[in-house]
Automatic annotation (TrEMBL):
Residues 194-210 have a biased composition (Polar residues). Residues 47-58 have a biased composition (Low complexity). This is N-acetylmuramoyl-L-alanine amidase. It comes from Candidatus Pullilachnospira stercoravium. It holds the Pfam family Amidase_3. Residues 265-385 form the MurNAc-LAA domain. One of its GO terms (molecular function) is N-acetylmuramoyl-L-alanine amidase activity. The chain crosses the membrane at residues 12-32.
Length: 390
C-alpha cells in the first residue's frame, strides 16, 4: 500500500481552508443584507407610526377678494386718489372726486377755487391733513355715483369746513389785518405782442446796449406766445394781491403796447411801488429742462445800489421758495445776472420770475391750465407776503 504524499495533503488542506474562507465571507454578506433589511423595516415602521400620530394639515382658507362694488372698498380707493392728488397739486382729481348734495338733492361739484384753497392748506398743515382724511373716512362721507364715476359726497356744503380754512358753524372770528395794507406792488407782464429790436443801454450810463424788448418764447405744445401767458398770470396776480390788501401798479394790461425794458423799470420806480415783480416764462434748447427760477442783480452790479441789490436777492429767494413749495415745480434757485435792463434800471427792489419752461411739453401744458395758474399766483403772492413780514 502506497503512502499519501506530503504534497497531496497540503493541497487538500489548502482547498479546505479556501472553502471555509468562502463560507465565512458568504455568511458575512448574508448577515449584512439581513441587517439592512431589518433596519429598513424598523425605519418604515417608525415612519408609519409617526405619520399615524400627526394631525392632518388643514388647508388655509384664502382671504376673501375685496368686492369692487363695496362702498367701503370704493371709499378707500377714492381716498388714496385724493392723497395722490394732494401730493401732486392736482386740483382736477380732487374736484372730480369730491361732491356735495345740493338743496334739490342733486350731486354738485365744489368750485375749483375752494378745492385749490383746501389742497394748498392741507399741504402746509400736517394736522389738518390727517383731520381731513379722518373726516373722509367717517360715516358722514358717503359714496355715490355722478354719471359713470364714483365720488365721495360730503355731509357739508362747505369743503373748507373740513379743515381750519373756514370758521366752524356759530363761530365768529375777527378779520386779520391784510399783509399788504399800505404796500404797493408793481407788476410787469414780460414782453409784448411785437418785439422791438431797437437798442437801449442795459443800465444807467452803460455803453453796452441790447434790444428794447425781445419777442419771447412760445409754448411747444400749446402754441401760446409767452407774452399772452405772462399777461394772463400778471392780471391774476394783481387780483390776488389786491384781495390780500395790496395796491398794485400794472406796467401793461394789454398786449398791443411798445414799452422797453428800461422804461418798465423806470415806470415802476416812479409809480410809488415798494417792489417790482416781473412775470416771465422760460425757454431752452433742451426740451427736457423744467423748473422755475427768479433773477436778481449780483452784488457787483454797477448800475444798482448795493442795498437795493440785497433786497432784490432777498425778494427773489423768498418768491422762488414759495412758488416751488406751492406748485411743486423744481426749484432752480436765484439766478444772479447784470444783463437784465428791466432790473438794472430799477430803483426799487425787483425780481424776475421765470414760472416754467414753455419748451418742456409737460410744463407748457400745465402752465396753460386755470388750476396751475392759480397755484403759481398763490406761490408768488405768498413770497411777497414773506418779504414784507420777515
Amino acid at each position: 500500500m502506497k503512502k499519501t504524499s506530503k504534497t497531496g495533503i497540503n493541497i487538500l488542506i489548502f482547498i479546505i481552508l479556501i472553502l471555509v474562507l468562502a463560507l465565512g465571507i458568504l455568511a458575512i454578506v448574508q448577515y449584512g443584507r439581513f441587517r439592512d433589511q431589518m433596519e429598513e423595516k424598523a425605519r418604515q415602521e417608525a415612519q408609519a407610526e409617526a405619520e399615524a400620530t400627526v394631525t392632518p394639515t388643514q388647508t388655509p382658507t384664502p382671504e376673501p377678494t375685496p368686492d369692487p362694488s363695496d362702498p367701503e372698498v370704493i371709499r378707500e380707493q377714492l381716498i388714496g386718489s385724493i392723497q395722490t392728488a394732494i401730493e401732486e397739486n392736482n386740483v382736477n382729481t380732487m374736484a372730480n372726486i369730491l361732491r356735495y348734495t345740493a338743496s334739490d338733492g342733486s350731486i354738485t361739484a365744489y368750485p375749483a377755487e375752494d378745492v385749490a384753497e383746501v389742497l394748498l392748506h392741507l399741504k402746509r398743515d400736517s394736522a389738518d391733513y390727517w383731520n381731513f382724511f379722518t373726516a373722509l373716512r367717517s360715516e358722514s362721507t358717503s359714496v355715490n355715483a355722478d354719471g359713470e364715476s364714483q365720488v365721495l359726497v360730503l355731509s357739508t356744503q362747505d369743503l373748507r369746513k373740513m379743515t381750519n380754512t373756514a370758521p366752524k358753524e356759530g363761530e365768529s372770528i375777527q378779520p386779520e389785518t391784510p399783509v399788504g395794507e399800505g404796500k404797493m406792488v408793481a407788476i410787469d407782464a414780460g414782453h409784448q405782442a411785437q418785439g422791438d429790436s431797437n437798442q437801449e443801454p442795459i443800465g444807467p450810463g452803460a455803453s453796452q446796449t441790447k434790444a428794447r424788448v425781445a419777442s419771447g418764447t412760445s409754448g411747444c405744445v400749446s402754441g401760446v406766445p409767452e407774452y399772452e401767458l405772462n399777461l394772463t398770470v400778471a392780471l391774476k396776480l394783481r387780483d390776488e394781491l389786491e384781495r390780500r390788501g395790496y395796491s398794485t401798479y400794472m406796467i401793461r394790461e394789454d398786449n398791443e403796447v411798445n414799452v422797453s425794458n428800461a422804461e418798465r423799470a423806470q415806470l415802476a420806480s416812479q409809480s410809488g411801488a415798494d417792489i417790482l415783480v416781473r412775470i416771465h416764462a422760460n425757454g431752452s434748447e433742451n426740451s427736457s429742462v423744467a423748473g422755475a427760477l427768479t433773477m436778481a442783480p449780483s452784488t457787483s452790479n454797477p448800475y444798482v445800489d448795493g442795498q437795493i441789490v440785497q433786497e432784490c436777492q432777498r425778494l427773489s429767494q423768498l418768491v422762488i421758495d414759495s412758488f416751488c413749495a406751492v406748485t411743486g415745480a423744481q426749484n432752480q434757485g436765484v439766478y444772479q445776472t447784470d444783463e437784465m435792463s428791466g432790473l438794472n434800471w430799477c430803483a426799487i427792489p425787483a425780481t424776475l420770475v421765470e414760472m416754467g419752461y414753455m419748451t418742456n411739453p409737460e410744463e407748457d401744458a400745465r402752465m396753460q391750465t386755470e388750476e396751475y395758474q392759480a397755484l403759481m399766483v398763490q406761490g408768488i403772492a405768498d413770497g411777497i407776503d414773506s418779504y414784507f413780514t420777515s
